[in-house]
Design brief:
Elements: H1 2-39, E1 56-59, H2 70-80, H3 86-102, H4 107-121, H5 126-141, H6 147-158, E2 162-170, H7 171-180, E3 185-189, E4 191-194, E5 197-202, H8 210-223, E6 231-234, H9 240-245, E7 248-252, H10 256-265, E8 268-270, H11 276-281, H12 286-306
Parallel strand pairs: 1-2, 1-6, 2-3, 6-7, 7-8
Antiparallel strand pairs: 4-5
Helix pairs in contact: 2-3, 2-5, 3-4, 3-12, 5-7
Length: 307
């Protein structure tokens, strides 16, 4: 009996300890599960955020939204309408060929292109150039819009956010493109006009590099935007100041310098060009340069026959 009496309490004590052990194990498991939920890597938040009225998107134009340079396509349209001579078209073609080959904006070429454009539009009415810009968009630009970038812009619009083009191209042309794409508006280089007529001079400087960043900063302040919640998209290292302003920078069809910087900064990259060479140096297609050169040669030959 003594032995039995001794065994019985032990069994009861063991049972109590088992219950305690089980409860402790269950509690530890629950805590572990909670801790795992806390330390687990969070899933990427939905972007763009729907209904965020303090967020917006800013898109560079040339080689980001549209293949090639808007100024060149505009020049083609003006040449067709006899705004300038064949030699000017050849210069525009060379500038475009360089832009497509290098995949970057060379300051001297861009300045030459701007000077050429300003001299061409001098004395013409602003309203006239806006009307012609609508026609030129249909003729030369509409088919050169990158579908991938257009989809990114549409995603921001669908989220209820404003979307702006930011470009060194003339603001009148940029506004036409923005309107035709259904975007909110455009920031661009402003050419001086008096009584609605172009003087051949700029207001300030071209909207390029740091000037783009300042324009975005000013617009954000006026619109009440939080730049940390905004996105910016560009192909060029010249736009690193603009991209660095926002919380969501994207490198689109990036040149070599921007691609390297984007990887160092862990920015997102998108490349909508095709072909191995295009991915390396930003050439939409080798045939594209030939088409420009061939088209120029054909135009010159036609012009000479007419003369």
């Amino acid at each position: 009996m003594a032995a039995l009496a001794w065994l019985t309490p032990r069994r009861r004590s063991a049972t109590a300890r088992s219950v305690l052990a089980g409860e402790a194990s269950a509690e530890a498991a629950r805590k572990s599960s909670q801790e795992a939920e806390v330390v687990a890597p969070p899933q990427e938040a939905e972007f763009p955020v729907h209904g965020d009225e303090r967020a917006a998107a800013f898109f560079d134009l040339d080689n980001t939204v549209m293949q090639g340079a808007a100024l060149f396509h505009f020049g083609r349209g003006l040449y067709k309408r006899k705004f300038f001579e064949t030699r000017d078209l050849a210069r525009f073609a060379w500038q475009q060929a360089w832009f497509r080959l290098a995949g970057v904006e060379d300051p001297e070429h861009m300045q030459d292109a701007r000077d050429s454009a300003l001299s061409i539009v001098k004395g013409h009415r602003v309203a006239e150039l806006k009307s012609i810009g609508e026609e030129i968009y249909d003729e030369y630009m509409a088919e050169r819009i990158w579908p991938g970038t257009r989809a990114l812009a549409q995603a921001h619009l669908d989220a209820g956010q404003k979307v702006w083009l930011v470009t060194a191209a003339p603001v009148e042309i940029a506004q036409v493109i923005a309107r035709r794409l259904g975007l909110t508006g455009a920031l661009g280089t402003v050419a001086e006009s008096v009584d609605g007529v172009y003087t051949g001079r700029l207001v300030g400087e071209p909207l390029h590099g740091p000037a783009k960043a300042e324009a975005v900063r000013a617009l954000a302040a006026a619109e009440g935007l939080d730049l940390s919640r905004c996105a910016a998209y560009s192909d060029s290292h010249n736009d690193i100041p603009m991209l660095s302003l926002v919380g969501h920078p994207y490198a689109i069809n990036p040149d070599a310098k921007l691609r390297r910087h984007a990887r160092e900064m862990d920015w997102r990259l998108r490349d909508y060009r095709t072909g191995r060479k295009a991915a390396k140096v930003g050439i939409p297609a080798a045939a594209g340069v030939g088409a420009v050169a061939g088209g120029t040669a054909a135009a010159i030959a036609l012009h000479r026959r007419r003369r």
